[in-house]
Amino acid sequence: MEILMSIVIGLIMMCAVYLILSKSLLRIIIGTGLLSHAVHLMLITMGGLPKGEEAPPLLGEHSAKGYIDPLPQALILTAIVISFGVTAFFLVLAYRAYQELETDNIERMSENEDRLT
């Protein structure tokens, strides 16, 4: 299962890098979102994937012998919320830049840089 997840993570990262290297600001924002999702999947995969039927992580005399550590899952949940906030900020920033410069092309934005000052 880890091999399959590694291939999926690689494909998502490949698409993210392709989008980040484009000239459109909206594609760059989508690329950063995809890259953060790929990193989240990588961290979850590194934390351990369940094999077969797993018992619930109980403590005491009925405890399961092997259970998955919940700490990486909690950290991933926090990272998802933070990446959502950063993506929302990027979208607002891109919208404001589009209103001022009337383009989302990075090269045209650098040409119109003197308009903002």
Report on this model:
The chain is an all-alpha fold and 117 residues long. It has a single domain, classed as Orthogonal Bundle (Helix Hairpins), CATH 1.10.287. The chain has 5 helices and no strands. The protein has helices at residues 2-20, 25-47, 71-101, 106-111, 113-116. The longest helix is centred in the C-terminal third of the chain and has 31 residues, at 71-101. The mean pLDDT is 84.
Strand content: under 5%
Question: What is the chain-wise order of helices and strands?
Answer: HHHHH
> Cα distance, first to last residue?
54 Å
Stretches with pLDDT under 50, minimum 5 residues: none
Shape: elongated
Report a brief summary of the structure.
The protein is mainly alpha-helical and 117 residues long. It is 71% helix and 0% strand. It has helices at 2-20, 25-47, 71-101, 106-111, 113-116.
Key traits:
Helix Hairpins, elongated, single chain, mainly alpha
Secondary-structure blueprint:
Elements (H helix, E strand, L loop, with lengths): L1 H19 L4 H23 L23 H31 L4 H6 L1 H4 L1
Helix pairs in contact: 1-2, 2-3
